[in-house]
Write a structure and sequence with these properties.
Layout lengths: L1 H5 L12 E3 L5 E3 H10 L17 E2 L1 H23 L11 E3 L4 E3 L1 H5 L7 E3 H105 L4 H6 L1 H9 L15 H5 L2 H9 L19 E3 L5 E4 L18 E2 L9 E6 L5 E7 L17 E7 L2 E4 L5 E2 L7 E10 L5 E9 L4 E9 L6 E6 L6 E3 L19 H4 L1 H25 L1
Antiparallel strand pairs: 1-2, 1-3, 4-5, 4-6, 7-8, 8-19, 9-18, 10-15, 10-19, 11-12, 11-18, 12-13, 13-14, 15-16, 16-17
Helix pairs in contact: 5-7
Length: 505
C-alpha cells in the first residue's frame, strides 16, 4: 500500500483526483486545496505552510500515474475474482498433475486428496520450460532463415547479374539474326528487280525488232512504187501482197511476266533453310551452373575447357560438386545421340549420370554412384565401372555417344550407352545394364588444359507434330534372349527324349 499512500492527497487521504501543484512543490486535489483556502484566511500550503501567491497548475504527470494505478488495481481485482475456485471461493494456488486441473486448498483436501499435487507456480515454470524446449527447433530454423538472408541477397544479386549478361547475349544473337534477315531481304528484292529488268529488256528488244521489220517492209513497198510503169504493173500483185502482210499480234506468255511464285513460294521456309548455316542445332547444351571454378564454358554453352587458373566468371552457386559439366536436359525414354569433338585431347571422360542437384557427389565416379562413362588416358581407354584398360586402333577426334532403350533376357526394360568414332562410324565400346526409369544427364570432363571439348552441331530437320521419339520394339526384339533360352531348352528335351526312346528299343 506504500505506492497508494504516495498517490494519496494529504488533505482527504484519498487517491488524487485532478491533482494540482503548488509553488512549494506539494500536490493536492484541486477541490481539497480550494476548500482549504476558502476556510483559511491565507493561501498557505497545508503541509509546509508556505504561501502560494500564484494559482496552482495541473499536475498532469501525477494525474496519469494515478489513473494507471487505478487501472492496474482494477485488473488485479478482476484477476483475483476470476481465479477463485468456483466451488469453494478460495484462491487457486495448486495444480493437480493427475487430472491436469488448477485447485484451491479445499479441492486438494477433498476431490484430489490422493492425486499428485504441486504448487501452481512450479507447474507453470515446468511447463514453460517444456514449451521453450519445444520452441528451440523453430528458433534455430528462424535463426537460420535470418542468417540466410544475406545468402538470399547474394543469390538475388547473382541472378540479376546473370539476367544482364544473358540479356546482352540475347540481343547480340538477335542482332546477328536481324542482320542476316536484312541481307536476305535485300538479296531477294534485288533478285526480283533483276528479273524485272531482264523481262523489260527482252520485251524492249522484241518490240524494237518488230518495229524494224515493219519499217523495212514499208520502205521496200515505197521503193517498188517508184519503178517504171511496166515494171510496176508486172510486179503489182507481189507488191500488194507485201503491203497487205502484217506482223502477228504479240503473244502473252509466262516468259514475259514476273515469276511471283518463285519469289514468294515457301519464302519463310527457304529463309529458314538458309538460316541453318548461322543457326546450328546442338543436341546437348551444357549447364553453366554445374561448372567447376577452373573450367570455362563458352558463351553459346557448347564447349568447355579446363583452365590453369580460377575463372573470373566462376560459378558462385554450383549445383554439382564434381569436376564435370552436365548437360542442361536429362533423357528418359527413347534413343538419344550426340557427338563430342576432342581434337588432339588425350585425357578426357564422358558419359551419362544421374543428377544429384545441390549435393556433393561421392567419389569415385562409378555406376554405384550413378555414373556410366568412358575415360581416355593417353592411348588407353577404360570404363568408369572397372580399372581394366584397353586400346583401339584409331583414336577418334569426335566421339559419338548413343543412349538407347535395351531389354535383358527376361524382357525387363533397361538402358545402354555405346561409343563410336563419328568420323569412321566404327563402334568401339558399349555399357549395358544402365537403370531405366530415371533421367540421365550427359556429362563431359576435360582434363587437358586449354583443349576444349565441344558439342558437335547436327543438321536441323523438320519434326512433325506428335512425332514419337521412343522406338517401339517388336516382341521378338524385346524377348530375343528369352526366346533363345527357350529354344535351347526345347532342343535339350528333345535330345533327352530321343536317347530314352533308343534305350527302350
Amino acid at each position: 500500500m506504500a505506492l497508494e499512500d504516495e498517490l494519496s492527497c494529504p488533505v482527504c487521504t484519498e487517491l488524487f483526483r485532478d491533482p494540482v501543484l503548488l509553488s512549494c512543490g506539494h500536490s493536492f486535489c484541486r477541490q481539497c486545496i480550494n476548500a482549504h483556502w476558502t476556510s483559511s484566511s491565507s493561501r498557505n500550503c497545508p503541509v509546509c505552510r508556505q504561501v502560494s501567491p500564484q494559482e496552482p497548475v495541473s499536475n498532469l504527470s501525477l494525474r496519469n500515474t494515478c489513473e494507471a494505478f487505478l487501472r492496474e488495481k482494477s485488473t488485479r481485482k478482476e484477476w483475483d475474482e476470476e481465479h477463485e475456485c468456483l466451488i469453494h471461493g478460495e484462491k487457486v494456488e495448486l495444480f493437480c498433475q493427475t487430472d491436469e486441473e488448477v485447485l484451491c486448498s479445499e479441492c486438494k483436501k477433498h476431490e484430489h486428496a490422493k492425486h499428485k499435487i504441486q504448487p501452481l507456480q512450479q507447474a507453470v515454470r515446468q511447463r514453460k520450460e517444456k514449451l521453450k524446449a519445444a520452441l528451440r527447433p523453430a528458433e534455430k530454423t528462424l535463426w537460420s532463415l535470418q542468417n540466410s538472408a544475406a545468402q538470399d541477397a547474394k543469390i538475388c544479386n547473382f541472378n540479376q547479374s546473370q539476367v544482364q549478361q544473358t540479356e546482352k547475349r540475347i540481343k547480340e544473337e538477335f542482332k546477328k539474326l536481324q542482320q542476316f534477315l536484312k541481307k536476305e531481304e535485300e538479296s531477294r528484292i534485288a533478285a526480283l528487280n533483276e528479273e524485272e529488268k531482264q523481262k523489260r529488256a527482252k520485251i524492249e528488244k522484241r518490240t524494237k525488232g518488230r518495229i524494224r521489220s515493219l519499217s523495212d517492209r514499208l520502205g521496200e513497198v515505197e521503193e517498188r512504187m517508184k519503178d517504171d510503169d511496166v515494171t510496176f504493173l508486172q510486179n503489182y500483185n507481189s507488191i500488194m501482197n507485201r503491203a497487205k502482210c502484217t506482223l502477228p499480234d504479240q503473244e502473252l506468255s509466262s516468259e514475259t511476266l514476273i515469276d511471283v511464285s518463285k519469289h514468294l513460294g515457301n519464302l519463310k521456309y527457304q529463309v529458314w533453310d538458309n538460316m541453318k548455316d548461322i543457326c546450328p542445332y546442338y543436341p546437348v547444351i551444357l549447364n553453366p551452373h554445374t561448372t567447376p571454378a577452373d573450367f570455362s564454358v563458352s558463351d553459346d554453352l557448347t564447349a568447355v575447357t579446363s583452365c590453369v587458373h580460377r575463372q573470373d566468371k566462376s560459378n558462385a552457386f554450383p549445383l554439382n560438386r564434381s569436376r564435370m559439366v552436365l548437360g542442361s536436359v536429362g533423357y528418359g525414354i527413347g534413343t538419344h545421340t550426340w557427338q563430342i569433338e576432342m581434337r588432339n585431347s588425350r585425357h578426357w571422360s564422358l558419359g551419362v549420370c544421374f543428377r544429384s542437384e545441390g549435393k556433393p557427389i561421392t567419389q569415385p565416379l562409378s555406376p554405384e554412384n550413378g555414373f556410366w562413362g568412358l575415360r581416355r588416358d593417353g592411348c588407353m581407354y577404360s570404363f568408369l565401372s572397372t580399372p581394366t584398360r584397353f586400346s583401339i586402333k584409331t583414336n577418334p577426334e569426335v566421339v559419338q555417344v548413343r543412349l538407347e532403350d535395351d531389354y535383358d533376357v527376361l524382357g525387363r526394360w533397361q538402358r545402354k550407352v555405346s561409343f563410336s568414332d563419328a568420323r569412321s562410324d566404327s563402334h568401339f565400346a558399349k555399357i549395358t545394364g544402365v537403370p531405366a526409369g530415371k533421367e540421365l544427364f550427359p556429362f563431359v570432363i576435360p582434363e587437358d588444359q586449354s583443349v576444349p571439348l565441344r558439342v558437335v552441331p547436327v543438321p536441323a530437320k523438320i519434326t512433325l507434330a506428335g512425332e514419337q521419339v521412343e522406338r517401339n520394339l517388336s516382341f521378338q526384339e524385346r524377348y530375343k534372349g528369352l526366346i533363345e533360352i527357350c529354344c535351347w531348352v526345347v532342343i535339350a528335351l528333345l535330345v533327352i527324349l530321343s536317347f530314352k526312346r533308343d534305350g527302350h528299343k
